[in-house]
């Protein structure tokens, strides 16, 4: 009998979450001795690590910008991170994820402070379970702060999706792969969206509900990112981010 998979059992999702619940999150700062800033993050069964280097000299030199730093972002999925071994090296998907993730973070980096230099961000996915781009952006944002890169704010990221006709927060792999839509976003604590993608089909009203739900998720993630940084740097006053905002006096 061809029985359709149901994503809900007794009103909860297959992993026991309600529709508006994030997966458990764990963040560790400063996990790599040789990076200027780093962060390890778990979002459910996703495990990612972000390393930040810079601001440093740009190579190749022709990429230099006279008035500002450039930001580079490389997202890489380890071969062993997925069920079916991933061929090592860049591909269309990882190039796309790298591009949109860089664009999600660049607006908050005060690049004009460091002309002719580069801020390099490397994100390695060690284990994937849908939402790796959002986990990578969250980890990279914390790693940038850990590196002391002046920023207007942190960036927080998560997705909302549609399964069995219902809008759900932070889809896990089975929901992402077999569901009807996936909407990853990234935003500043002030609610400015720096990433918005959509895979699948949604009505206008569903898209609005998905974005609102993902925004609520980002706000929860921001609180965790902030707490982890404050716990690590509470001896430093004023906080790096606040200082950067004050110095810049800029808005996105
Ligand atoms: N995935 C996979 N092999 C791949 C690419 C993706 O198994 O080559 C899985 C992986 O679990 C990933 C999920 O599919 O997290 C969803 O991928 P998507 O492209 O939507 O990006 P993500 O949600 O991870 O940002």
From TrEMBL:
Keyword Hydrolase: yes
Oligomer and partners: Component of the archaeal exosome complex. Forms a hexameric ring-like arrangement composed of 3 Rrp41-Rrp42 heterodimers. The hexameric ring associates with a trimer of Rrp4 and/or Csl4 subunits.
Keyword set, alphabetical order: Cytoplasm, Exonuclease, Exosome, Hydrolase, Nuclease
Species of provenance: Candidatus Methanocrinis alkalitolerans
Main location: cytoplasm
EC number: 3.1.13.-
Role noted for this protein: Catalytic component of the exosome, which is a complex involved in RNA degradation. Has 3'->5' exoribonuclease activity. Can also synthesize heteropolymeric RNA-tails.
Domain Exoribonuclease phosphorolytic: 21-150, 154-216
Claim: Cytoplasm is one of the keywords in the record: yes
PANTHER family per UniProt: EXOSOME COMPLEX COMPONENT (PTHR11953), EXOSOME COMPLEX COMPONENT RRP41 (PTHR11953:SF0)
Family matches, as SUPFAM superfamilies: Ribonuclease PH domain 2-like, Ribosomal protein S5 domain 2-like
Pfam families tied to this protein: RNase_PH, RNase_PH_C
Gene: rrp41
HAMAP family the UniProt entry points to: Exosome_Rrp41 (MF_00591)
Coiled-coil region(s): none
UniProt GO molecular function: exonuclease activity
Family in the record: Belongs to the RNase PH family. Rrp41 subfamily.
Protein name: Exosome complex component Rrp41
InterPro entries: ExoRNase_PH_dom1 (IPR001247), ExoRNase_PH_dom2 (IPR015847), ExoRNase_PH_dom2_sf (IPR036345), PNPase/RNase_PH_dom_sf (IPR027408), Ribosomal_Su5_D2-typ_SF (IPR020568), RNase_PH (IPR050080), Rrp41 (IPR011807)
């Amino acid at each position: 009998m061809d029985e359709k998979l149901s994503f809900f059992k007794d009103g909860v999702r297959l992993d026991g979450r309600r529709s508006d619940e994030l997966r458990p999150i764990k963040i560790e700062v400063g996990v790599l001795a040789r990076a200027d800033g780093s962060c390890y993050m778990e979002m459910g069964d996703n495990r990612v690590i972000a390393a930040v280097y810079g601001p440093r000299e740009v190579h190749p030199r022709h990429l230099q910008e006279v008035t500002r730093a450039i930001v580079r972002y490389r997202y890489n999925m380890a071969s062993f991170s997925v069920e079916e071994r991933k061929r090592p090296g860049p591909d269309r998907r990882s190039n796309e994820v790298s591009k949109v993730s860089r664009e999600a973070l660049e607006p908050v980096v005060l690049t004009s402070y460091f002309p002719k230099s580069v801020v390099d961000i490397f994100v390695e996915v060690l284990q994937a379970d849908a939402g790796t781009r959002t986990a990578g952006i969250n980890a990279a944002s914390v790693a940038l702060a850990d590196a002391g890169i002046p920023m207007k704010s942190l960036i927080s990221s998560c997705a909302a999706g549609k399964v069995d006709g219902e809008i759900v927060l932070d889809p896990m792999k089975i929901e992402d792969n077999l569901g009807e839509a996936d909407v990853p976003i990234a935003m500043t604590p002030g609610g400015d969206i720096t990433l918005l993608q959509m895979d699948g089909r949604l009505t206008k009203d569903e898209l609005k509900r998905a974005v609102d739900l993902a925004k609520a998720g980002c706000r929860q993630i921001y609180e965790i990112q902030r707490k982890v940084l404050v716990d690590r740097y509470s001896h430093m006053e004023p906080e790096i981010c606040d200082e950067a905002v004050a110095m810049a006096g800029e808005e996105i």
